[in-house]
Amino acid sequence: MPPAQGKYVRYLIIAVVGLTLFFLSRRSIPLPTSTPRPLSDGHLAHSPGQSQNEQSSNEVMRFAATHSGGRANATLVTLARNRDVWEISQAIRQVEDRFNRKFHYNWVFLNDQPFDDTFKRITSSLVSGTALYGEIPPEHWSYPDWIDQDRAREVREEMREKKIIYGHSESYRHMCRYESGFFFRHPLLQEYEYYWRVEPGIELFCDIPYDPFLFMKETNKKYSFVISMLEYPGTIETLWDGVKEFMDDHPEHIAEGNLMTFVSNDNGKTYNNCHFWSNFEIGSLDWLRSKEYMDYFETLDRQGGFFYERWGDAPIHSIAASLLLQKEQIHFWNEIAYYHMPFTHCPAEEQLRKELRCSCDPSGNFDWKPLSCLPRYYRANGIPLPSGVDGYSWLAIFGFVILGAILACLLAVAINPRARAQAFISVRHLYLQSQTFWERYQEEKREWERERLRMKR
Ligand SMILES: Nc1nc2c(ncn2[C@@H]2O[C@H](COP(=O)(O)OP(=O)(O)OP(=O)(O)O)[C@@H](O)[C@H]2O)c(=O)[nH]1
Ligand SMILES: [Mg+2]
Q1: For the residues of 356-401, what is the DSSP string, one character each?
Q2: Which portions of the chain have biased composition (kind: Polar residues) (predicted)?
């Protein structure tokens, strides 16, 4: 190969190796290992510049230290089918052992079918408060009259083909719509102010020796979460159009000092798919029953996206919380270590984990993984990320340097017509060479096979 051509082949090889190194090095972004400093009274202090993780822990732990008792008007709530009995039993056991055995809150179970005796017998024996069982009125779990059911069926078939998770399911859509706009209107929930949603199969890894409902009440929080993440865009293609319609129709409902920057990167033009994972929620039922939320839900429900797409209750609740509430009214529970398949939140701070007798592995923490929206939540609140999260390791920096060099090489080749022509010739040459190698290999393989057959005979 002439020397000039060789030069450009080297550029291309460097580019490929460099890109590989770049992507490998980006994976080396370190996880935070910060631990809060204990105060002399054994509880946790925070100072300016500490992460929200620590601030949140400290706020809750200070609350825990000063509120050993107390009670809010609240209930645990679960939507479930009869066949979920064993998975919900596991979840109840965990919530009871880690929290409710000291507080004895009631537990409301809701179902679109009547609960059977087994479900009632098993679950009521596990709940330390009163277990209440409610059937969902059919008008809350059926098609509204403005929905074209043939179109909805076609969409389900299309989503089945596209293998969109739960895209084929009719009942999943009723469930999402119910959780978005109806559960808080069920007669059994009317008397309560706060709810904690619990799903079958979840796990809790740390003690909750304080009352999260009372914390919500005393600090004027309306919605809280443990894990946040990106939604699958194929399920909510027109959701933000509906949200924009709502914002245009009801500017009076949009809170000042809201958390818009959590759900939109361009001040409301588009949705960035971030949402709070709603299989865990502690929130205010009064807020969900408010005119603001009801107008929001009704605008979206009229769009038909629960059936013509597959809108989930998580983005519906999250966008509402981000637009209708002040950002201080939304709370992130760092102290509640939680698992719902397939993600875990486990506090990074060892001191906190010891204090709360946690059994989770912090290396499995989802908070700073690529799909998590917690970094965006921090930024939206103007809170510095824990050390290590926003920084890059030396390997990552090396990756960026390599990427810069690659781009420079590619640019040099692209703007010089002679270099471009030679790069093209080199690539072709390499291709032909590899083809020759391949043919030679095939020929040798055939020869070897013939030899083997001769030996056999
Ligand atoms: N009564 C009733 N409850 C349902 C139905 N579908 C789902 N649920 C409940 O609604 C909640 C959410 O459903 P899941 O199937 O857990 O949905 P998900 O969390 O998005 O998906 P998973 O990854 O499967 O957990 C759970 O508490 C279920 O028990 C249904 O058709 N009827
Ligand atoms: Mg679930």
Answers
A1: TT----GGGB-TTSTTB-HHHHHHHTT-PPPTTTSS--HHHHHHHH
A2: 48-58
| 281 is a catalytic site residue | yes
Q: What's the gap in Å between 224 CA and the centre of ligand 2? A: 17
Q: Enter the tokens of residue 351.
A: 């001191």
Per-residue pLDDT of the chain (457 residues; tens, 9 = 90+): 555 556 667 777 777 887 777 666 555 444 444 433 333 333 333 333 345 555 566 889 999 988 877 799 999 999 999 999 999 999 999 999 999 999 999 999 999 999 999 999 999 999 999 999 999 999 999 999 999 999 999 999 999 999 999 999 999 999 999 999 999 999 999 999 999 999 999 999 999 999 999 999 999 999 999 999 999 999 999 999 999 999 999 999 999 999 999 999 999 999 999 999 999 999 999 999 999 999 999 999 999 999 999 999 999 999 999 999 999 999 999 999 999 999 999 999 999 999 999 999 999 999 999 999 999 999 999 999 988 776 556 666 777 888 888 888 788 888 888 888 888 888 888 888 888 989 999 999 999 988 888 888 7
Distance 371 CA to ligand 2 centre (A): 18
Q: Which residue is closest in CA terms to ligand 1's atom 20?
A: 279
CA dist 286 and 267 (Å) reads 28
Nearest-atom number in ligand 1 for the CA of 198 is: 27
Q: How far is the CA of 14 from the centre of ligand 1 (A)?
A: 50
Separation of alpha carbons 114 and 91, rounded Å: 21
Q: Around Cβ 10, how many Cβ atoms within 10 Å?
A: 12
Which ligand number lies closest to the CA of residue 88?
Answer: 1
Q: What is the DSSP string of 50-107?
A: --HHHHHHHHHHHHHHH-SS---SEEEEEE--GGGHHHHHHHHHHHIIIIIHHH--EE
Of ligand 1's listed atoms, the one at least distance from the Cα of 179 is 10
Is 231 a pocket residue for ligand 1 (Cβ < 6 Å)? no
Which of 179, 199, 231, 281 is labelled catalytic? 281
262 CA from centroid of ligand 2 (Å):
23
